[in-house]
Amino acid sequence: MQAIKEFFSPYMLKFIISFISADIAIMLSQAIIAWILYENLGIQYVTAIALIALLVNTIANKKLGFLLDRYPRVKLVMAANLIIAALTAIALISQSTWIFAILSVLTGLYFSCFYAARGAIAQLICINNPNQDFTKLNSMLVVTDKLGAILVGVIVASLFSWLGADALIVLALVILLISTALLAKFNSPTTKPTAQNAKAKPAGSFAWFFQHKIARLVACALVVTIVIMTGGTIDRVILYDVLKLTPDLIAYTSIAYNSAAIIGGVMVNWVKHETAAIYACIGLAFLMSCLLVISPSLSMFIASSALFGLLNSINRVLYDSVIMRHVANEQIGTFYSLLNSLNQGSQFLILIAINVFLWISSTTNELLTRWVIVFYPAIFLLIPAFLWLSGKYQKAKT
């Protein structure tokens, strides 16, 4: 109860609002930009842009940690906000599809910087305040993130057909500038000497990352994330390319995903067997993928998205909490950046695999059924690896 009271203190509210407003702005602009790119370029070019983005982010994330651990994190987020805002303004004025494409490429890198910086600051808040608990704080951060995402879904669903794409991007730009102004007035906590920080060793390479004591646990989380990303990618591509849905209809899928994620974010505080919860969610997601073969409809995609949202929030709260407990603050930006590099590299391989299966399916004119039947079992072969790596979440919580 004390942790909840601390969460609603003036300082914490300033922290949450400053960051969540930037999150909302970027999510809103990207929802519209994704539609613009699909409309103007088609799925082949959009796929190529996505592959370039993932490759760039895989490489750049390895260097991003250097900045996050050596320079003021709030100022880095402010600088990233201003760069995105400037590019967005140029894209709106020029109406250049390719500048929108550049924005799409940079978004993954922006979110890597954003979440790593926010995670490092949240870790300091917990270190400096014994009343705060890592799991509860991360749970509340996930809940506020998903509330923001639901707000974006509501805005797109209700205003897209009325205001149009440009007006919503302008709205996102205004919110981003407000966030930057709020961040300028936010005082980040400073590092207090701790045993964890005193033992910190030089970081920055994948060798260091995989030698860390929580590397196995993070590998477990990454496998789960790969499963989530695969399902989410299939959902998005089919919604755009097969069902030809507009952003306002797709927003309902986003609302379902994030509503379930809020439930997962709250529920994780009472889950006693975390690994079992992850297995249960994976099983449900796999069951839903089988149902999609039988009945590929918008309602089934919404239900599938909700399950992936539940799984994602539980997984994220747990591994974020473990990272904050066991990685020194002077290294946490690097740790998150290397993790994001692995994440983006996994997505790169997934997208290539998806397009290979798309090509195979298109030659037989059984696109949707063949794609889901062939691709999902291949991805779920990763679950034995997850079982093998499983150094349970509970062991790392102590």
Automatic annotation (TrEMBL):
It comes from Moraxella cuniculi DSM 21768. Keywords: Cell membrane, Membrane, Transmembrane, Transmembrane helix. Its main location: membrane. It is found in: Cell membrane. This is Major Facilitator Superfamily protein. PANTHER family: INTEGRAL MEMBRANE EFFLUX PROTEIN-RELATED, MAJOR FACILITATOR SUPERFAMILY ASSOCIATED DOMAIN-CONTAINING PROTEIN. The chain crosses the membrane at residues 12-37, 43-60, 72-92, 98-117, 137-161, 167-184, 214-234, 249-270, 277-294, 300-319, 345-362, 368-389. It is a multi-pass membrane protein. It comes from the Bacteria. The keyword Heme does not apply. SUPFAM superfamilies: MFS general substrate transporter (SSF103473).
